[in-house]
Amino acid sequence: MNDTNSKIETKIVPSIHNTFSLEAYLKTADEAVLGNQNITCNTYKLDGEFINSHQYVTDDEGKFEVSFDSDNDLKIELIFEGSEEYEKTELTTFFLKESEEEKKRIEEEEKQKELEEKRLAEEKEKEEKALKRQQNKERKAKLLEEYNNNQNYLQTTGDDNVAIELRNVSLSFKIGNDKIDNLKEYVIRTLKRNKEKKTIFKATDDVSFKIYKGEKVGLIGYNGAGKSTLLKIISGVYSPDEGDVIINGNIAPLLSLGAGFDKNYSGRENIFLNGAILGYDEKFLREKYDEILEFSELGDFINLAVKNYSSGMLSKLGFSIATIVDPDILILDEVLGVGDITFKKKSKEKLKSLMESNTTVLLVSHSISEIRSICDKAIWIEKGKVREIGEVNYICDKYTKEAKTASKEKTKKLKPQRF
After folding, report:
1. From CA 18, how far away is CA 99, in angstroms rounded?
2. Angle at which helices 100-154 and 392-413 cross, to 10°
3. pLDDT for 389-404, tens place per residue?
4. Of residues 373, 377, 369, 381, the one with CA closest to residue 351
5. Which of 128, 197, 289, 307 sits in a 20 to 30 Å window from 397, CA-based?
6. Which of 317, 330, 344 is nearest to 375 (CA)?
7. Which residues are registered as beta bridge partners of 8?
8. pTM score
9. What is the rounded CA–CA span in Å between residue 19 and residue 99?
């Protein structure tokens, strides 16, 4: 045997539908073709598992062709066993690759697969949302039925079970249009009788409703509807011009925390001042003083004038005074957690403990989610009148639907201004 080496030159001719054609030439090191020679072709999976082996014979030009049908990538070995004139070649190994057409086909299949998976996911999401809506609808229907049954029962229990009752309550305010800055101008214009007439604003107009003991009731409505005014009438801050307000039980009104504080008095002195405004006597406040101080977390600041307090410190003190008793009726005006993060958590827990008892709760809030979570009954106030009373989810759904419609109408009327 001589030392003339041989080699195999290969060329892959890819096709479509997982078919691959291999065109190969057997030549010597000096480019002389080797015709009529035996070639062994071994096929393996990529993990090395043997598939099959085939024998091929080169033609006069040293050429031979091999075709493969496979759904998977393969490893191919071409071996020239040599002859009397030529030595055995080194092993020639290569991997089949997809053609451009095959790549496009695979990419298209993957794309279609992704689209189908996305479609199925969207359908599943729609079905889940539809199921959730149906379950929510059934839950609300059940709550409405329970509410109506409970209201029918409460109406048979008599007036002794009523916590709050308003009968045809109306309250008006006189709004002056004069811009009078001092007493001298006021006296002069009074004597000359040239003061402008005051405008009468009716804050509440013939309001009537009953709230039974233990009910959790939310007042909803747009700004200026009269919600906070109604709370102040019930709390005794305002006296109505007409109608009757009947309260059965002691009230803890959490309206404007710190309202009624004298800025020049110390925190300690304001406990007794504010407590008196809320209807607590001095003896009771002295007994509860340490408890109020501890809950407020003010410490030595209690002896400073409240004009030196931050708004958070004022809220802490006001909340601690207002919630010192376990009231029969708890009135909240947007007060669901005050002060810093630690006190806010504590105040919410305090309110939660009050609400979980048989305490009657009357809440004003613009957060419909809070109204839904806390209350079982809602009163919709509009322009000082009772628009509707009913189960909380039923009323809140109608209110939010109308609010969205009103917002869209206002948006349509807005016109861009040119500058």
Report:
1. 9
2. 120
3. 999 999 999 999 888 8
4. 373
5. 128
6. 330
7. 26
8. 0.61
9. 9
